[in-house]
Here is the input.
Amino acid sequence: MGILEVKGVNKRFGGLQALGDVNLSVQEETVHAIIGPNGAGKSTLLNCLVGKLIPDSGSVMFDGKSVLGRKPYEINQMGISRVFQTPEIFGDLTVMENVMIPCFAKRDGTFRLHALESVTHEKAIREQAESILAEVKMLEKKDFHSGTLSRGDKRRLEMAMCLVQQPKLLLLDEPTAGMARADTNNTIALLKDIKQRHKITMVIIEHDMHVVFSLAERITVLAQGTPLVEDTPENIKGHPKVREAYLGEAQV
Amino acid sequence: MLGLGRKDTTLFAIVVLVTVLAPFLLNPFPADSAMAQFNSGYPDLMQRFAIYGIFAIGFNILFGLTGYLSFGHAAFLGVGSYSAVWMFKLLSMNVIPALILAVIVSAIFSVVIGFIALRRSGIYFSILTLAMAQMMYNLAYSVFSNPAMNLTNGETGLQVYASDPQYLKGNGPDVTHLFGLQMNSTYEMSVAGWKFDFGVGYYLCAVIMLVAFYIAIRIFRSPFGIMLRAVKSNQHRLNYTGVNPRPYNLAAFVISGMYAGLAGGLLACMDPLAGAERMQWTASGEVVIMTILGGAGTLVGPILGAGFIKYFENIFSKINENVLHSWFHWLPESVQNFVVHVLSPFFGEGWSLTMGLMFMAVVIFLPGGLVEGGLRIGRLFRRRPAPTPDAATKPAE
Here is the structure.
């Protein structure tokens, strides 16, 4: 029994069958990649996991509880954090404030009227935020306005915002999309480091094979809304079906 | 100090000092000099500065922090005024119950309106608040002034009559008072040619404004304040960070509605009369302009903006053609007539034209409002000293 169990999920947009009978089981403390050509339904599947979309049928169980029908913030409180394709951060706030918000969310829940308490007196929260910033090597930039950061730094910051909540599952939607090679390698190193240190379960949606094969322990290949195969990276590389659906196409 | 950081304490101390010394600071010209018309240190106007300051501070908590632009905040001002006058009619002329009821009733109204309007954001939120405020204005103006249930007294405005019950009045005074201290009593001080007025009403408003300002600073510096700024910055991310933005928005809306109600109650305390025109959309627009002019999202901006607009409305508007003629009496008559003719649309009745031009200039050149203007001037002065080797080792902040 995995930490995330997706069973028989279907999702239709008008006449388009975006997801057809998807089954997926993610084991704890593994890095599970979902790959597939454009339009395979990767993002739709991810959106079903975080509460943005509700599947037409099927079930999504996380940690023994159903996530279906829950709001994104409730699902986050269950222990799922998400990294977006383009980094989503609070651009008007400082780096430090960006990291403190998830700390408050973790401690205080979805809402708390702490209107007359002072941020400067939140020692524990500040320490927590600083230690995670040190881990992603952003501590010296903690007073910067996050909107002015470079794209790579924004990605690190977003990662820190997710990690500081100590999620049970981290979802990454194309974490290296649009990055230069050097930045991509930095991100891979960062993710490897995170995996080692925090032992978080991760689900990565990715186009870049280099990223997938250097990180993933299990890979699911999606094509036209249905999982083709699920296997280890070594076996996926040589799998004929995969070549046909995805890698073959890329090599032409 | 007081749970504030060093910078905030300094800022608060300056505001306290200016507020307490306002009767002196706002009357810089001798009473019988030609410039006396620019004196604004009379209690009636100073009360307005403080009251609209409260209104704008509250509005800034919603607009400045969350970015939700309400076009209906005058509705809460009006509700506060009506509730206060009802307390005068039913209990006594003491201001305390009036202010308490004003805040409670405006809180109830803002919970209801906020709950509905906050289902949408952006322009739709603004339109919803505008529509609801106009609805309340019309209800107050006509529907609730029928003989069967006369809550607002329609066009005439709600006021206190001798026939009102006033159950707790006893031998109390007939004017608004704070446990016997009458709001309209003033102490006049004459020093050489100068005259300074110290009104009880002004100091009550001032103290309440300072408390309101202090609470606003605390809110700005609290985790709650960070959440509100996060709403403005990226509500999408906030949702995926485990925070439900809706109760935060509603709380900000209700807090700012309570500030508006308090301001409305104070208006009624200074002059126990409440009319529906206080709730009209122009009044809602005014507080938006005050906040943006002063600097939305800054601490003192709204107070500055409120003071600025009220000064213009009351002082600048008095410069009519006669005054202009007296200014330019030294010019040959034909030139004088021409100059006055050109300038007169911008003065006197035309004060709003000048105000509008200034507002445009501020929005275009100083997006951070008057506060940003002040900061830029401050930076200009700090940069002035040429960087010597000594200075380079100790850079200014």
In short: Chain B is about 65% helix and 5% strand. The first strand of chain B starts at residue 158 and ends at 159.
